[in-house]
Amino acid sequence: MQQKSGKIINISSLNGQTGSFxxxxxxxxxxxxxxxxxxxxxxxxxxxxxxxxxAPGFIATEMFEVIPEKPKEAILARIPLSRAGTPxxxxxxxxxxxxxxxxxxxxxxxxxxxxxxx
Length: 118
What we know:
Layout: E1 6-11, H1 14-18, H2 24-44, E2 49-56, H3 62-65, H4 69-78, H5 87-100, E3 108-111
Parallel strand pairs: 1-2, 2-3
């Protein structure tokens, strides 16, 4: 705020947008990030600080890799792009917002291979 500029990028989740059976606490926390992002964007805009969120879907991380094969196949079958995203793709989205996202604020960027379209 003192610099009169800045960028904040929060990481939410597909589950914060859709909910997920058996994950009420996780889904609620990730949905809360979306609400926080919008509120912070409103409050910080006067300081030229943008605030956005990225909501990844299934990303090929250790957490995804430990899913048993049959459930993993079922998940991938639901994704129109037929694959999990990569950590590098999430990083590139963050980079885009930092480098070129000057006029975006209060937005949640869904990054999920098409499994959930708003």
